[in-house]
């Protein structure tokens, strides 16, 4: 790129080379100036003026570099008027072939909902980080949402610069915008108590009850539950193998997002009971375990479960409403409160290590053993010091 990545460098004892992108082509032109510090600075200013002219579609190659071979090559060609919207549309089409349906839909929502309304009419080469900051600054959104918007734009611009070579550099590279957020007073973990679980299961029946009970006793994500087939269950070893998921926007079952997500879950009594009760409905067909009773087909993601089953059952049970994902949090809190090892719980739930468990569910861990600390206290407590000292003196 030249001097500190600024697109200028000394080409000889009497010339300086300027590099810039024009109509998707990397161009190099020489200026008859000795490469002194002052002249290199002048060359940088000249290059900046060229880039501005290109961005505003007012660049005249022949007038700027009349003796250049590139001037003749570009003569009579229309200027590069590619807009942010036209590039993002093409970029999204390519992503659709590479991403899971749920991920692609998230990208599409950001492009359609934010990026195109904000920057769609801008020339791709004219977009700068200041434009992005000016839109994000007044936006009432969490830093997670801001990060997601910037991540999509950054990925698209990286491809525009590195692969399509339509822009000189990615203005989002190495930069991001975030706000100072106050600490959250509460989190979204709100598990169901034992009595609430019993009330919900009493209010449900048939396949709906089996699905809910299985969710409580495996901690599986809803997308994983609906993707399960009977071939994934090993009744001899009492485990179920999780290797795929069915999201709302997918047209078919997909693999799990992470390696840790592909796992074997030990089937505890409540989960095994739910599967045995479910056999009468779907076992002989030998395909999906859980079906939507209204359609006789595999559940199409979590929203149909929430709208046609979960909301009705929770209301009937008289239980304070929480969304279905709380069954996963309920499983974690039950296991930890009962004293199960955090690493085992992490593997059951598809986390790579136990740090996520400790961070999210730590407040249930002290309750794992009502006598926690008593063994150490009995052995090393102050009332035992004389005994320990006498033992040490003998040795």
From TrEMBL:
<dbReference type="InterPro" id="IPR050808">
    <property type="entry name" value="Phage_Integrase"/>
</dbReference>
<dbReference type="InterPro" id="IPR022000">
    <property type="entry name" value="Min27-like_integrase_DNA_bind"/>
</dbReference>
<dbReference type="InterPro" id="IPR011010">
    <property type="entry name" value="DNA_brk_join_enz"/>
</dbReference>
<keyword id="KW-0238">DNA-binding</keyword>
<feature type="domain" description="Core-binding (CB)">
    <location>
        <begin position="82"/>
        <end position="161"/>
    </location>
</feature>
<dbReference type="Pfam" id="PF14659">
    <property type="entry name" value="Phage_int_SAM_3"/>
</dbReference>
<feature type="domain" description="Tyr recombinase">
    <location>
        <begin position="187"/>
        <end position="374"/>
    </location>
</feature>
<dbReference type="GO" id="GO:0015074">
    <property type="term" value="P:DNA integration"/>
</dbReference>
<dbReference type="InterPro" id="IPR010998">
    <property type="entry name" value="Integrase_recombinase_N"/>
</dbReference>
<keyword id="KW-0229">DNA integration</keyword>
<keyword id="KW-0233">DNA recombination</keyword>
<dbReference type="InterPro" id="IPR044068">
    <property type="entry name" value="CB"/>
</dbReference>
<comment type="similarity">
    <text>Belongs to the 'phage' integrase family.</text>
</comment>
<protein>
    <submittedName>
        <fullName>DUF3596 domain-containing protein</fullName>
    </submittedName>
</protein>
<dbReference type="Pfam" id="PF12167">
    <property type="entry name" value="Arm-DNA-bind_2"/>
</dbReference>
<dbReference type="GO" id="GO:0003677">
    <property type="term" value="F:DNA binding"/>
</dbReference>
<dbReference type="Pfam" id="PF00589">
    <property type="entry name" value="Phage_integrase"/>
</dbReference>
<dbReference type="InterPro" id="IPR004107">
    <property type="entry name" value="Integrase_SAM-like_N"/>
</dbReference>
<dbReference type="InterPro" id="IPR002104">
    <property type="entry name" value="Integrase_catalytic"/>
</dbReference>
<dbReference type="GO" id="GO:0006310">
    <property type="term" value="P:DNA recombination"/>
</dbReference>
<dbReference type="InterPro" id="IPR013762">
    <property type="entry name" value="Integrase-like_cat_sf"/>
</dbReference>
